[in-house]
Amino acid sequence: MSWSASDIPDQSGHVAVVTGGNGGLGLETVRELARANAHVVVAARNLDKAAKAEADVKAEIPTASLEVRALDLASKASIKKFSEGLLADFDKIDLLFNNAGIMAVPEGQTEDGFERQFGTNHLGHFYLTYLLMPALLAAGDARVVNTTSTARFSAGKYDLENAHSRGSYSPWEAYGISKRANLHFAIELNDRLAQAGSSVTAYSADPGFSNTDLQATSASASGTLSSKFFKFAVPVVGQSPARGALPQLRAGTDAAAQSGSLYRPKWVTAGAPVVGKVGDNLRKPQDLRDLWTVSEEDLDITFDVPALVAASK
Length: 313
Description:
By secondary structure, the protein is α/β, with parallel strands linked by helices. It has one domain: NAD(P)-binding Rossmann-like Domain (Rossmann fold, 3-Layer(aba) Sandwich), CATH 3.40.50. The protein contains 11 helices and 8 strands. Helix 6 runs antiparallel to helix 7 (about 225-235). The longest helix is centred in the middle third of the chain and has 25 residues, at about 170-195. It is globular.
């Protein structure tokens, strides 16, 4: 029996945070969580677009409990300010959807000097999760869901000694590295939480080919033939953003969800959300540990999960 948004259990009393909740997959995730009675924090860089998204959801769901907060994942300072505001206002956070991202953009740097795609898509979410961990642990059975992509297969050598692709930048390889990092972070985070005895769990979700504005934005920004191909191909062979959001919604809300798993469309590019196999080559223990170390060093933090879990008890 196919899982759909109507299977989302009541989320009353739950606080959910959705990065990039102002459009595409994020907006559909916000919409369905609000429909299920969660209080949803829409984290977005473009506040004008976020305000329109909020109005769109409330027009459809008058009872929706939403709030928009500014978050730029390409800025440590912005992430810290956003996290401090949430920790001050909420005793717990039940759901964290690390959904926002940029795709196949020209080479550039974040505010803190990181390669833009690895810095925004992975490091921004790694830092955000680290800062919000006290509130996630306070919820008891909170869930963290990272949005990955089939582009994880285009990560080339996945050289974590040069995670920022310095001197060897390719828009699609760099995007693939960031999306594989999203998968690896979820797997390793879940393992570390379980080993520390926490009931907080982590998941990854692949939307398949989803017809969002990400393809058009990528094509406009990079101008590569592959970006232009996806801009025109995805609307033909892909699925709607509402369907594309189902894997992350299932990972975040299904009581029977398998922690640490990847959820993806049944037919890879489209279809109902199911648990997908992650091959041994994409879950090498050393790669998972190396990514964690690289992330800590880049961000100048120590993401000590056992210590955080112990402090929460």
